[in-house]
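quick one before i forget lol
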Amino acid sequence: MTSFPLLNELRTKTQELHSKLERESCFADLMKADISCGQYVAALNSLNTFLATLEPAIEAYLTKSDYVYKPRLWCVQSDLEALGHPPVLDTPRRTMTDTEAIGAAYVIEGSTLGGKILHKRLQKQDFIANANALSYFSFYKENTWSDYINWLEKQSLQPCRIRWDMCRGNKC
């Protein structure tokens, strides 16, 4: 795939946060061979908060474009319900600019792509498989990531307009 400035900006600006998330948060637990129900629920709760906060604004902006964001919050909430842990439903929503929505969609689309890899590991956990609690990590659809990247490549935004601080503070 050909590289372009906005994609490079997104990769560069999210790399540190991505690495920190993998190392230091409840998502690091998902990389372990064995994971407890509590660890999995903590990761799902963090995803629930993140998606509930950002997804409405992403949908509002990206429904007006050629790329249509596919909501995933329902997947996380379904997984929590399946495990007997009702999700928090009163998470405050965040308003975003169009460029913030594009950046947030980049993070979420990337996490869904990564979820495809985690799905293989997590389905080996009996408590997850038995509860059928893998909706989020099996969400990836063929071409979802490439559809987003192809759409992103056509955007004529100034990379410096995207705010990168919107993902900070979403710790487990």
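fyi Residues 159-172 have pLDDT under 50 and may be disordered.
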